[in-house]
Amino acid sequence: MKKYFYDIHCHAMNMSHPNFLAFIKRFEDMVFKDTDKFLKSNRLILLLAANFLLIKFLFFKKFDYKNLVKILKKTGVDKYPDRAKNLLAAMENDTGSFFLLMEECLMDNLVKNRKLIIDNKEYDKIIITPLIMDFGTKTVYYDEIHYNNRPINKPVVKQIIDIFNGIKNYKKLSRYNMLEIYPFMGINTTNYSLNEIRIMLNTYFDNYKGSHQAFKKKMGNFSGSMQNIADNRYAGIKLYPPLGFDPWPENKRELEKVQLLYDICQKKGIPITCHCSDEGFSIKNNKEMEKLTSPLKWEKVLKNYNRLTLNLAHLGKQDHSDDWQKIILKLIIKHANVYSDISYRGFDNKFYEYLKKTIYSYKDSSIREKIKKRILFGSDFMINLLKTESYCDYFDVFSKTKHFTPDEKDYFCSINPQRFLFKNELAKFKPKTPSKSKLYHKKI
User: Which of 13, 219, 405, 444 stands 20 to 30 A from 148 (CA)?
Assistant: First the structure.
C-alpha cells in the first residue's frame, strides 16, 4: 500500500491571478512589521547609530552607505527585495510549469530511489491541495494612486481554468508523477447571491464522495472548459476573510449564505480550510481584517455546526503572540473535526521548538495527543518564498527538526491530513442531515 505525504496548504497563482495591489500591501506590511519590531527592541542602538550618521554627514558631508546597509541587515528587511524577486520569478511560470518546479525541487533534494525521505520515513507520493483564492472585483485602496478608484476585475474562473489546465499539463509532462493534485474551491459568499452559491455547490459537490480514488480517477482529465468541472474535482473549500468573507455575518441575508455553505459541507463531510492569521492578501484595514479573521468568529459557527470539518490555517498570528493560537487549540480540544495547519510558520527550527512547548504546556496527556492528531503540515508555497528560498527548503526544516519524533511528524504530514481530506472514505462517515430546511437542501 502506498504511503502519502500531504502538503495540505499551498497555492498555484501566476502573475495574472492575484490582486497585485494586495500583494504589494502584503509585502509592505511585512517590511514595516519587521522594521517596527527591531526599532522597539533596539531603540538605544538605533539612536546612537542615527546620531553618528547625522554628525558624519553634517561635518564631513559624507554618508556611509555601508553603515546604512548594516542597519538594514540588523532589521532583517535587507533580504526582502531578493525574496520578492524570487517569488515573482516563480509566478512568471504558467501553472503546469509551476507544479513541475515544485516536483523538481523535491526530486533534486529530498527524493531518493523514488521515495520522499522525511527523517527515517519514506513516502511514495505527495498529495498537494492548491487553494484557489476568490479575489473577486474588490481592490486595495491607496489614496495617492490615480487609477485605483476603478475596481480591479479578477474573476476566479480564469484562475480555476489555469489550475486545471496546469494539472493536466503536469500529468502529461512530468517524468516522475510524484504529485497528486487536488484543488480546493475558493469562494467568497459576499460576491454571490444565495441562489448562485446554491448552484455552485450543487454543480461541484452534489455527488461529492470525499474519496481519494474518486479524485485520483479524474485528476488531469480536463477539456479546458468550466463545463468539464463537476463532482469530485475539488477536494474541499477555501475561505479567506481578509478579502471580505465573514464566517458569521450579522447581516441576515449574508448569514443565510454562509449557513447554506456550512449546512452542505457538514452534511457531505466536505473539508473547509480558512485563513486564520494576521498576515495575508487584504482589502481591509488592520482593525477590520483582525475582526473578520479572528478564530473567535468560528466559535459561533461551530456552536451551530459542531461536526464541520475545519482547518483554521496558520495556527494563529505571525507576530508570536498566542491569543489566537489558544482559541484555535481550545476549538481543537472541544470539537472532533477541527484542525490547524502550520503553513507559513515552519521556516526554522525555532518554530518547531515553540510548537512542542505549546503542546506540552498541557499537562493532560490525552489533550496533548488530541492536539498532535489535529496538526497538519502545510507550506503556503509559493507565498512562503517571501521568507524561504525554495519549496524543498521548507520541507528540509521539517525533516531535520529534532523537536518531534518521526512518528509525530508522520501524524502531521500523513495520517492527520489523510483523515482531514478523506474522512468519508476512512471512517465510512454517514452524517445525519443537520437541518430540514428546504432553503438549504433544495435541488436546482
Answer: 13
